[in-house]
Amino acid sequence: MLLLAEFFTWIFAIAILVCWVLPSGTTALPIPRTPPKAKRRCAFKAYRLTLSTFLVIEVNDIYSEHPYIYVKRVPEANTILVTDTGCGGASNDRKVDITSLREFIETVGVEDNGGRPLNEGGSMRYVVVLTHCHYDHIRVEDFARDSPILQSSYSPSFVSHANLPEHSLCADLGIRTPLFKPTLVPHLDPIHSATGAPLGVRLLHTPGHTPDEIALWDEQEQMLYVGDTLYEWEPIIFPGAGNIRTWLASVDALIAFVMQSKSPQTALINSGHRTAVRPALEVLQTAKSFMMDVLLGKEGPRNRTRRRGEVYVEYAQDGGRYSLRCPERLVKEARDPV
Ligand SMILES: [Zn+2]
What we know:
This protein is an alpha/beta fold. The protein has eight helices and 17 strands. This is Metallo-beta-lactamase domain-containing protein.
């Protein structure tokens, strides 16, 4: 049996032990943290190309087009220049949260932009340019309510409200044609903000792939944007309204245009698919060579299919850098002597 003094000694010892152990045990427990805000899943990803310009890719669209969209920030004009607007965020990812390009630009932080959205809170206004009217580049609904939508003035009937469902290929795909009232821009005109401030970009008519195809030239950054006129590693697809001879003339005009720039060898080219920040002259010249090889019979047809009431033929370089899919009629027309 413990004496009273021994009992108090034991109690004192246990109290010291508890005070000694408990604080260290407590600090070893993980500190409860507020769980990080759930990252929203987006139909788009953005990457910086230059000081002013970002590439936005619609990454997992149901059409497998993966269109390239270019977003140029021009704070001095309080304007964002958007070149093409993709196919509307229709994603294979059913859990995607952000399907609107405008919402992406205004609310989603971009790592290459210091974690901030490209146009945070929509503080800057927009000018939208469509490189051509195909369905995978023209979902402009979110912008058309308050922003100018620019297209080529080369063939107003081609982009008219009456013809857009057919020429955009929306009718063929059974999807809704976007409704918007474009401003048609003449060849070589500079692009301005909605309030008339210059954006440092010039619009060039480059018909061939389609009659309304355009290119943009950013003089300061020596960047050429050519839409679907050409790109690498995927078939360049001409619709029935395309014209290969006209395409060749446009590519020649682009080569001449780059040659007269202040630094032709460092100019870069950016397309509507797959090709971005590549050497402009080299890409233009090699794409033209491939097309000439097709017309001269040096490249043989690899495949024929029937679509939209026509026989489509496919040509492809060994290695696959350039390939072409178009109505066979276009190749025959381009080969025929004038
Ligand atoms: Zn396209």
